[in-house]
TrEMBL record, chain A:
Keywords: Membrane, Transmembrane, Transmembrane helix. Coiled coil: none annotated. The chain crosses the membrane at residues 6-27, 67-86. This is Na(+) H(+) antiporter subunit G. It comes from Lutibaculum baratangense AMV1. The lineage of its organism: Bacteria, Pseudomonadati, Pseudomonadota, Alphaproteobacteria, Hyphomicrobiales. One of its GO terms (molecular function) is sodium:proton antiporter activity.
From TrEMBL, chain B:
It is found in: Cell membrane. This is DUF4040 domain-containing protein. Residues 13-79 form the MrpA C-terminal/MbhD domain. Its main location: membrane. Residues 189-303 form the Na+/H+ antiporter MnhB subunit-related protein domain. One of its GO terms (cellular component) is plasma membrane. It holds the Pfam family MbhD. Coiled coil: none annotated. The chain crosses the membrane at residues 6-25, 32-49, 55-74, 95-115, 151-168, 189-212, 218-239, 251-274, 280-307.
From TrEMBL, chain C:
It comes from the Bacteria. Pfam families: Oxidored_q2. It is found in: Cell membrane. Belongs to the CPA3 antiporters (TC 2.A.63) subunit C family. PANTHER family: ANTIPORTER SUBUNIT MNHC2-RELATED (PTHR34583:SF2). The chain crosses the membrane at residues 6-23, 32-51, 63-85. This is Na(+) H(+) antiporter subunit C. It is a multi-pass membrane protein. Keywords: Cell membrane, Membrane, Transmembrane, Transmembrane helix. Gene3D superfamilies: 1.10.287.3510. The lineage of its organism: Bacteria, Pseudomonadati, Pseudomonadota, Alphaproteobacteria, Hyphomicrobiales. GO terms for cellular component: plasma membrane.
Length: 103, 312, 105
């Protein structure tokens, strides 16, 4: 393994760590808004690091550009969906939002 | 066991667990959510098998469009109070069902393992003849040349399925508009998202058809992306569903299968139904794929939208 | 043990899981899910059979048939959902007649 491979592996590992942290937040946090906070922060950063790790291994600039587009689209979609879920959760009673967030 | 195989076993186990959660869970919405996760895991499985075209189709159709369809169905049932899970059969009956299902699974697995190992399948035949098909992606060559009659039938099945869905319309709503009118807050995130994404979605759709002749991609995957753009435009309030009585929309739906059939019939005059000489086949396949893409996109989007619920 | 065998065995298990759901769950939306799971299990078996040669990419003919199958499965799911919604509108129930009562008793 050369330096690029190590950097790539390190970046992917950091990304996976963010995903694990985000998932732990999803499972442990008490209400919709803090769960969303954990998920979107962790997953966007996690995907960012994983994309970076994969991009390092790519030879063609074209492939790197595609990975960048995928990452940006995911961030955009995640941010939009998170906003919509948060707004929908505001509309329901707080106790319902806490106990029954998946409706 | 090497690490790659370990990953395969973990992924396969996760897919089975997600499927079990989808069928055995208590909450119906959780089941739908697990089913979507399951679809994405299966798309990953197709990547591991090297079937990139299938992975694209599974991710876009199996997880994406089916997910939208199921969530839509859930919310309609929820509004009518029909999402309560009825109590299941007795535990003895459940045990019996589990035993029977497990036996079927084991039987299928044993038959698979017992398949003759030397079967080369049809891959060599496709490899030898792909040059004559006019395209270089073997999957596209099979879909639109070697087994084009399958694809022709499939496009007709799609149109017939849509006609069957529409046939459930109530008399007073015939010719009306599917679904409820969607509103998004002006300048809100959804409205902005609905305006930002469609141009890029169109570009990806056109690219997928074009790329499909030499790389993974093709009419069905592209049509799903375009159908998703359509659904996003409707959900963000930028566009309303068309009335199903509209002549334009009906022509759009039948244009693809009709052109495909005309192409097949033209081939029949030159010798073989759906057969064309290699020098023009490539061009014709790409032309047909573009028209098919538009028709399939409209059909898929309207299949997800369902029966008309209001008049203009 | 090869990748193709792992996913084919996964497909066989999914057929079993789908069948179990189809038999034991009365809610029709769950039956639609179970039906789709059986379908994708069969696709995995077919795809696994097409990639046993260990080539770079699996046999294109099963791949094309599976893509066709995925699209047909979606159109049938859409029809099934439309029928289900109509059933609920007309009867208020999402189960078949005779299957809505508890047989636990």
């Amino acid at each position: 393994m050369n330096v690029a491979d190590w950097l790539s592996a390190l970046s992917i590992l950091v990304g996976v760590a963010f995903f694990i942290a985000g998932t732990a937040g999803l499972l442990r946090f008490p209400d919709v808004h803090s769960r969303l906070h954990a998920l979107t922060k962790a997953d966007n950063l996690g995907l960012g690091f994983i994309s970076l790790g994969v991009a390092i291994r790519m030879a063609e600039p074209w492939s790197i550009a595609k990975i960048l587009v995928v990452w940006m689209l995911t961030v955009l979609a995640a941010a939009t969906v998170a906003q919509l879920i948060a707004r929908a959760a505001l509309g329901t009673a707080p106790e319902e939002a806490g106990a029954d967030d998946h409706r | 066991m090497n690490p790659a195989l370990l990953f395969d076993v973990a992924l396969a186990a996760l897919a089975v667990v997600a499927a079990l959660s989808a069928v055995a869970g208590r909450d119906l919405f959780a089941s739908v959510a697990f089913y979507i996760v399951y679809g994405i895991l299966i798309a990953l499985a197709w990547m591991r098998l090297g079937a990139v075209d299938v992975a694209l189709a599974e991710a876009a159709i199996g997880a994406g469009l089916t997910g939208v369809l199921l969530i839509g169905a859930w919310s309609q049932l929820h509004r009518k109070g029909a999402t309560e899970t009825p109590p299941g059969p007795s535990s003895a009956a459940r045990l019996l069902a589990a035993g029977a299902s497990a036996s079927v699974a084991v039987l299928v697995a044993v038959i698979f393992v017992g398949l003759p190992a030397d079967g080369a399948g049809l891959a060599p035949a496709v490899r030898e003849n792909v040059a004559e098909s006019g395209v270089s992606n073997p999957v596209t060559a099979v879909l639109l040349n070697f087994r084009a009659y399958d694809t022709l039938m499939e496009t007709i099945v799609l149109a017939v399925a849509l006609a069957a869905v529409w046939s459930l319309t109530r008399d007073e709503l015939w010719g009306g508009i599917p679904g409820l009118r969607q509103h998004a807050r002006d300048g809100g995130v959804l409205a902005t998202f609905g305006r930002l994404l469609p141009p890029l979605g169109l570009l990806v759709g056109v690219y997928l058809v074009w790329a499909g002749s030499s790389m993974p991609g093709g009419a069905f995957q592209a049509a799903t992306v375009l159908a998703a753009v359509w659904l996003l435009l409707v959900m963000s309030g930028a566009m309303d569903e068309p009335a199903i009585g509209s002549t334009a929309i009906r022509l759009t739906i039948v244009a693809g299968p009709a052109l495909f059939l005309a192409y097949g019939t033209g081939g029949a005059f030159l010798g073989t139904f759906l057969g064309f000489p290699a020098d023009v086949a490539g061009m014709l396949i790409v032309a047909i794929e573009y028209v098919l893409t538009v028709s399939i996109a409209a059909t898929l989007a309207l299949l997800v939208a369902g029966v008309p619920r209001r008049q203009e | 043990m090869s990748t193709a065998l792992v996913y084919a065995l996964c497909g066989a298990s999914l057929v079993g899981v789908g069948l179990y759901g189809f038999i034991t769950r009365a809610h029709l939306l769950r039956r639609i899910l179970a039906f789709n799971i059986i379908g994708s299990g069969i696709f995995l078996l077919l795809g696994g059979a097409g990639s046993r040669q260990g080539a770079v990419s699996p046999d294109p003919v099963p791949q094309a048939v599976i893509i066709t199958g995925i699209v047909v499965a979606l159109s049938l799911t859409a029809l099934a959902v439309a029928l289900l919604v109509r059933l609920v509108e007309d009867t208020g129930r999402a189960t078949l007649p005779g299957e809505d009562a508890s047989r636990d008793a």
